[in-house]
Design a protein that fits this description.
The structure is a homodimer of 336-residue chains. The first copy, chain A, is 46% helix and 16% strand. With 336 residues, chain A is an alpha/beta fold. The first copy, chain A, folds into three domains: 2-58, lambda repressor-like DNA-binding domains (434 Repressor (Amino-terminal Domain), Orthogonal Bundle), CATH 1.10.260; 63-165 and 299-327, Rossmann fold (3-Layer(aba) Sandwich), CATH 3.40.50.2300; 167-296, Rossmann fold, CATH 3.40.50.2300. In chain A, strands 2-1-3-4-5-11 form a six-stranded parallel beta sheet, with helices on both faces. A six-stranded mixed beta sheet of chain A has the order 7-6-8-9-10-12, with helices on both faces. The interface between A and B is large, with 62 and 62 residues. β2 (98-103) of chain A pairs antiparallel with β2 of chain B. Chain A binds a DNA duplex (16 and 16 nucleotides) through α2 and α4.
DNA sequence: TTGTAAGCGTTATCAC
DNA sequence: GTGATAACGCTTACAA
């Protein structure tokens, strides 16, 4: 198990090192007999090329970076991210890329990560998740011509490459479904008010109300942080109105579950008195009672599009359109 | 933004390229004045060294590989993995390493990944998750002297470096707690029977029964796959016994939640008629009703130990002991 | 203390 | 077709 290199192979096969390289690259110009000889030795010794040398020489690492703009603790319990990472890994593999994952705790470290990954040429391109809608670093990356794709939204929309859930459409779908099934007082339980996703889904919610000729009532819209307590108090606020809502569209499954629980504690039956729809179609939808109806966002599609786009950029293809949307669909269960 | 290299910096600072390298490495031998000059130029141009060249020259990529032995779809919704990945990323950062994540769908591709990552020298070392207890590839890695750490268990225990949850201790703790709080008919709801974790926790469960002088009844032990239906039917089986159990130790929170739900559907009150304890202390424990008591496994500790150990191996330190255990603790909520 | 130069293991451009 | 040979950008003896 001495350190194998092409030179070794060459010596044993009685050819030049350059020929070994050519054989391994599948160069059609090499004589069949030599190819055989080389491949035989390669097989026998189990030679594998050194990725570091290839990276330096070819100026390509075949590594994609995934930067998640979130505190590790916040990221920790979120099934969305394991899904996203798993799918991107799988997709990247199809193009012979590997995935380097980083998390950006603070804004300061985020900048450091961009630098560290891209400027050092450690990765060939970046997928960024959950950046703010406006971000100096993104402008910078863009100006410097680094290949990167954003998962989420960015304005103006054609400035950078983005892949996003169809958040507006998803919220429309949820609200529309509730209205069609006879609900009339549909409330919206959002996440933190500043988040793009909160705003986008609010927009879809409003659009559906309008399409059904139902007036928009700001009192039926509340915001919560991503924890059970905050969700519970926001739900309580909704339920205390008179008349109380007969349906809730929640920003994600966690919030939806908290809302269901609060409603039940206050004597409302779900879905009889109040219907609840969540987002993400996470596994736990199946586990709660009643089982949670949820809007599934297609994480595999998101991952596929993002990877495809990034690899395209790296290899010099300008994608169009620069903004791509992964569709959503309603998974009907018992809660609505 | 021409391609910056040390040679450029050297020219502008009026020194040799080697000196630039020395300054950047913090070599104390360089004269303060030159250091200033070099650093000034570096700062001004925003030079960052090329990781690819460094990797080739130093024979170190400063990249750790994380190989998760699980189908991407199975991995997809599992909050444990986002936690693990997030924590390892954070830990690796402390040693100036980045993390390359791969998933191994099939055994065939798993072998490919080992090869691809290690033999190509793409990463300096590997963290392997959820391998089978006996694995040919692991032997091979071990024989070839590649630095790697296993998260999970391996036999014989001192053959390779492993980091694991204290599964036996955790199950003991859960069972002991239930017995102390007056439960007498404690059942065990495991995962798939073949899994090491299922077996280890069963062992802890038995030990606790024994310590309390409670007889072990094989009928009180059932196994389920990781999905709601399977969990429900296993729970139904438990509840149909007479007398039915008055407590369940479930292998993970998902199973525990499914069990609670099944029990409630069959008219049992939780925790009054039957107490339930889960594992992992995942965020959803807070969201279900009643809130789920769960054994928290310290994922950050797991990640820290694994990373520490691996970096040590890479840098030539033999760790001892070769097997390290992350402690568990009981997080008491409403279900038990 | 600083500069020169020899690699690290590839790929790719030349001649032959 | 195949074999020398020059990069790729850096680290590190060794020389000065």
């Amino acid at each position: 198990m001495a350190d194998l290199k092409q030179a070794e192979i060459a010596k044993l096969a009685g050819v030049s090192q350059a020929t070994v390289s050519r054989v391994l690259k599948g160069d059609p110009q090499v004589n069949a007999e030599m190819r055989e000889r080389v491949l035989a030795v390669v097989q026998q010794l189990g030679y594998v090329p050194d990725a570091r040398a290839q990276s330096l020489r070819s100026q390509r690492t075949r590594l994609l970076g995934l930067v998640i703009h979130r505190d590790p603790d916040a990221l920790a319990g979120d099934p969305f991210f394991s899904a996203l990472i798993a799918m991107i890994v799988a997709q990247a593999g199809r193009y012979d890329y590997h995935l380097c994952v980083d998390t950006a705790r603070t804004a300061r470290s985020q900048r450091a990560i961009y630098e560290e990954l891209l400027r050092t040429r450690r990765v060939d391109g970046l997928i960024l998740v959950e950046s703010e809608t406006q971000d100096r670093r993104i402008e910078r990356l863009s100006n410097e011509g680094f290949p990167f794709v954003l998962i989420g939204r960015y304005e103006p929309e054609d400035a950078v490459c983005t892949v996003d859930n169809d958040n507006i459409g998803a919220a429309y779908m949820a609200t529309d479904y509730l209205l069609r099934t006879g609900r009339r007082r549909v409330a919206y339980l959002g996440g933190p008010a500043g988040l793009t996703v909160t705003r986008d889904r609010l927009q879809g919610y409003k659009a559906a109300l309008e399409a059904h000729g139902v007036g928009y009532d700001p009192h039926r819209v509340v915001f919560a942080d991503f924890n059970a307590r905050s969700a519970a108090s926001a739900t309580t606020e909704l339920l205390s109105q008179s008349p109380p809502p007969d349906a809730i569209v929640a920003l994600d499954d966690m919030l939806a579950i908290a809302a269901m629980r609060t409603a039940k504690q206050q004597g409302c039956r779900v879905p009889d008195d109040i219907a609840v729809v969540g987002f993400n179609d996470s596994p736990l939808c199946e586990y709660v009672e009643p089982r949670l109806t949820s809007i599934a966002v297609e994480i595999p599609t998101l991952a596929r599009k993002a990877t495809e786009m990034l690899v395209g950029l790296i290899e010099g293809r300008e994608p169009s359109p620069k903004r791509q949307i992964a569709p959503a669909r309603l998974v009907k269960r018992e809660s609505a």
